[in-house]
Amino acid sequence: MPTQPSSTGQPAPRRRGAQKSPKKQMIAIRLAPDVIERYRATGRGWHRRIEAVLREGAP
């Protein structure tokens, strides 16, 4: 699949398509703004780190 150049002349990043069979379920959860800020400040992968904490605390 060729990439189209962006306005800067750089090739556009390739993006993944939809999953063939979803491995995870999408939900909505409300978290306090300070919690979100602290996780986002840790950089890429902050969603996975939240999932790990939830998994550890799951009954």
Features:
59 residues; mainly alpha; 2 helices; extended
Please specify the SSE layout and strand pairing.
Elements: H1 33-40, H2 46-57
Give a brief rundown of this model.
It contains two helices and no strands. The chain is an all-alpha fold.
Describe the model:
By secondary structure, the chain is mostly helical. It has a domain at 32-59. It has two helices and no strands. It is extended. The mean pLDDT is 87.
The number of helices is 2
Share in β-strands = under 5%
Q: How large, in whole angstroms, is the Cα Rg?
A: 17 Å
Number of strands: 0
Secondary-structure-derived class: mainly alpha
Q: Average pLDDT across residues?
A: 87
- State the end-to-end distance: 44 Å
Task: State the major sheet.
Answer: none
Helical content stands at 25-40%
- Principal-axes shape call: extended
**Helix-strand topology string:** HH
Low-confidence stretches: none
